[in-house]
Batch of 3 targets.
Target 1
Amino acid sequence: MMRYLPNENTVFDPMTVFDDFDQDFFGGSTTMKTDIKETENDYQVKAELPGFKKDGIHLDYNNDTLRINANHDLTQEHKDEQGRVLRQERSSRNISRSFYLPGADADKIAATYDGGLLKLTLPKRAPETEDSHHIDIN
């Protein structure tokens, strides 16, 4: 979506063009679309993070809570024929989500990221069995 100036009296704001780019490129969403499926053996998480790079995504599992944090920095630089900078624009985008997924085995969590789709598998810990002890009465 491009915003055009309605007439010559309208003040041009160069950041408006950048905002349009940001809206178009990132889909105008500030949240990540996430699907979580629980099976008997694991949790399966899929999170859509288009436009983010793998090294900008940080995952943490602590106190039965999965945290997904994604950060994206964008810098655009426009130069003229002599190499002089005419315009430089920067944008930063950070989104974060937390999900309570109790009983996952933190040492066995696996994650992949491809084509803007983050996939995690969080295997559940084996149920702890209580040892039964017979107590003799004297």
Target 2
Amino acid sequence: MSGRIILHIDLNSFFASVEQLLQPHLAGKPVAVAGNPKQRRGIVITCSYEARAYGVKTTMHVRDALRLCPHLEIVAPNFPAYRDYSQRFFALLRDVSPILQPVSIDEGYLDITDVVGEHPLQFVDQLQQRIYTELQLPCSIGVAPNKFLAKMASDMKKPMGITVLRKRDVPQMLWHLPVTAMHGVGAKTAEKLKTLHVTTIGQLAQTERHELRRHFGVQGEQMHERANGQDRRAVDPLAIYDTKSVGNSTTFAQNLTERVAVYEAVKRLSVKVAKRLQMKSLAGTTVSVMIRTADWQTYTRSQTVQNALQDEEEISRVAWMLVERHWQGEPIRLLGVTVSHVIDAQARTEQLNLFNFEQHAQEEPILTLLDNINAKYDKQLVMKGMKKRMVSDEYYANTSFSKDVFLHFDVSKKS
């Protein structure tokens, strides 16, 4: 292979594989990691390949999974164990190459161009075997000259597959596939492409670039490039910290119909979002609420504010305003609160107005003193507030951690 050599490494059925490793009696059996099967939030998070052979799938309700596979082993998620194995997985990859970009708890990109030697496929095979020997976890690896093709390749052979996908192979290996098989193209985009008579990756590749841009903007140009095997993105070790939004959602055991119950749910979600923002030293200017009704209709409403928010009371106030404005009293199955367009909390500036001007005026002498001290020594010795990244186990126990898990170690550290 010439040019860059990029790997996409994906741990196969990660949660289920960890459970089979920790509980040997589950080895070789159909296993599903899910919540409480007696509650509506009993959704299959992931399942073993033995379970998939019966038709069990991720996001399937537990009761439906049990109909397909009556002897399915249901296991509650063990997030501390998954976090531990994830960190060991990425530490191993970082030992192979410092150019590592995690993209979720169980997958990442690795640039091995400068470390691979003369036999890249032998190198990749040895890496796969090392992961299995040291962690006892199966993985699939895509090998390609760019990130998009590496991701597409890793999905082609599971479990324990290794697939090479070069640019010249794209017409033969990808163009016959439906556009929904293309990484980055969702159901809504596929429906819109269908109106342009584009249903396969090959048709997308052969559609005029300007036509796609007219309908999809910059995303249209990116889809055209990907369909032709082009991707200029580098493997970025720091990309995992580029958070664009922080949110939390919950599915209720019983539909919410009472105003007070909905308000309390908004408050609880806002507290969780605020805690995550504060842990990451972030603040955002857009608050969104997502409501899914009992008949599975989902809608999202957003409000952008002048000053970036981080406090639970402010987030809750805007979120509740959106709910009151748009909720028509339908029974609510799921509710979510998200803060987006986030920035570093220390970098935010607050627009002065009639109500906060006095507070800023009182702080001005302190800020002037800090500036004078820093100017005297030509260093940022003191500042207002302190940026902290102390993450507790309680934080992980109450939030999604597919990206937050990486705050515990430096993915960009060289071996």
Target 3
Amino acid sequence: MAALKVLQVVGFKNSGKTTLALNLLEQAKNKGKTVAFIKHHGHGGPLELPKADTDSMRLLGSGADCSIAYGDGIIQMHQQKQTATVEELVDYASLGNPDLILVEGFKEAPFEKIVLLRSVEDSLELQKLQNIVLAIAPEELQLDNIRLILQNDSKLLQNWFANWMVIDNEGI
């Protein structure tokens, strides 16, 4: 059995991470893949929660460390935890037995990643990261041992991702 495939999309603010991640998600779903998605909330402050008067939020507010609600095919989980690693989040996401997990953000995490570059300065900073399997940039950049696709070459990117989804990366 192949290892669970995890692919990160990383870059600086407004580099197109969400747009790319949504495109990859759509492509994976069109290939019949089940996909879990993890997004780093980098906007400061806690996430918005459902209204406080819902049963699941009343339970959380009454001291439950985790509240899970299920209805009509949707599982909703809220957990209070001061810190969580991306590895823990991947473990949570893997509970649904997806074919792959897409992660937006968490630059320092150890998973294979696509790096979105806006400039040479970005490339200098982001080349310090581990497990970069692809860089996407608006123009040709000189990168050491990192494959580069121009951001307007959507066909090449689609082909790369289609191949990535089927290549067994067990042991990487």
